[in-house]
Specification:
alpha/beta, seven-stranded mixed sheet, two-stranded antiparallel sheet, 12 helices, 9 strands, 41% helix, 16% strand
Amino acid sequence: MKNCLIVRLLNCLAVASIAFASGCATIEEKANEDCETVKVLMIGNSFSICVLNHLPKIAEESGEKLDLASLYIGGCTLKKHWTNATNVTDRTFRPYRYDRVVRGKRIVDGAKRNVLEVVAGTKWDIVTVQQGSHESWKPESYHPYGDNLIAKIHELAPQAKILMQETWSYTPWDKRLKKWGIDQNQMYDKLHDAYAAFAKQHGLDVIPFGTAVQEWRRKLPVRYTDHSFGGDVVGGGGQEECDHFKRNVRNEWEPNCDVFHLGRKGTYFQALVWARKLFGADLFKLDYKPESVSDSDAKLMKKIAMEVK
């Protein structure tokens, strides 16, 4: 993955020749031409766009040249991704927020794009996909939409390795768990099995972040209280700890914040798991961590990320 294959080199030379002949090239076109950089495209939602927060910095410290791009629609499922991919007749149909960071520099920031033009527009080394978290625990929801999407990526980007990001289970405060008749652990068990079965069917590898979150909950250990996430990496979002819970009219504690997205330290943990999977990075050699993560938390995160399968 770190060195250019001959085919990639020939493709890049061809693109560079076209740019030279035209007399100019945009920043994005120049990024496309760079064969030394590992190019990763995430087709996802809010559970993947957060990878942009810390992975570029971790890659840089690890000596990796990373081109990381995100196609984002909030809550987007495999079904919706595939529906979007089939809308090819309308060239103005650009429902995705597109962000791209090359070697730590943001070169695209929130532009609107079509999923197929982005997949085909760059010689991506890796393309990641995932199920919408609210559908992730239902194995039937992956078919036929995920099957069709994987086939289309293979068609448009045959050189790319496709990875599935395993998403995570919610905190106990998410009311959907009660609605679905499952608890946090059951949600994890079901989504873990669903991702594994889908990946096996298509010969894909998995970024095991959902499993890493469960290991964090077990090893810390996370101890939920009536007014605390108990150290979980999920819940709270970007809010300060003191804003997470409030008393309602019945004088009962209830969350006053996000209860299913990653908290600030969770996005760092996610980036560690991705770095280990994408680059085989030795995470114990990393110095970088955000101020929101303590030394002890970072040590445990690195240990889990190095061990999780």
